[in-house]
Design a protein that fits this description.
Oligomer: single chain
Protein name: Aim19 protein
Pfam family, one: Aim19
Mean pLDDT: 82
InterPro entries: AIM19
Strand order of the largest sheet: 1-2
Number of strands: 2
Number of domains: 1
Organism: Saccharomycopsis crataegensis
Length: 160
């Protein structure tokens, strides 16, 4: 595989989209899929998936607190992937990378693209909450999923 990558890099050095083409050539390797998979697997260690969000100054729960429910002043908000999501999508991305490592680049690219897109669909709201509450790690995971979906998707759809 390294010879293929070297040939592709030499072929794309003269083009205007050098960085994109260089990233695209890495889809011949399992490294982008494995990087996303490993970043998902370390997610529970790096960042909390839920945070305590206190309501705003003029919210009804703050103006009229319930005496029977002391937790009415705070609630948990999910800002990252759940542990089930981490295991499922991390394993799927690792499996797609293994398919590419086993010289099945087209099917591995399609599998990785599909599961990266499913990750975006299932964790999109969490990423929006992460941006709202200033959390960086879920946003980085979303960037990894988008880049895998775009780069491996191009490899799968146009079969170059």
């Amino acid at each position: 595989m390294p010879e293929d990558i070297q040939k592709a890099i030499q072929k794309t050095e003269g083009s205007g989209m050098f960085v994109y083409n260089r990233l695209y050539e890495y889809t011949l390797t399992p490294y982008p899929a494995w990087l996303f998979s490993s970043s998902l697997f370390v997610s529970p260690l790096v960042a909390k998936s839920q945070i305590v969000a206190k309501p705003g100054v003029l919210s009804p729960s703050r103006l009229f607190p319930s005496r029977t429910n002391p937790e009415s002043l705070a609630k948990l908000v999910r800002v990252g992937p759940s542990n089930i999501s981490v295991v499922l999508f991390g394993a799927a991305s690792a499996l797609g990378g293994y398919m590419i490592y086993d010289d099945d680049c087209i099917n591995g690219a399609g599998f990785t693209m599909t599961w990266s897109t499913l990750y975006l669909l299932s964790n999109g709201r969490n990423t929006i909450n992460a941006i709202k509450y200033g959390r960086v790690w879920p946003v980085l995971l979303t960037v990894g999923a988008v880049s895998n979906a775009v780069l491996y998707g191009k490899r799968f759809i146009w079969r170059n």
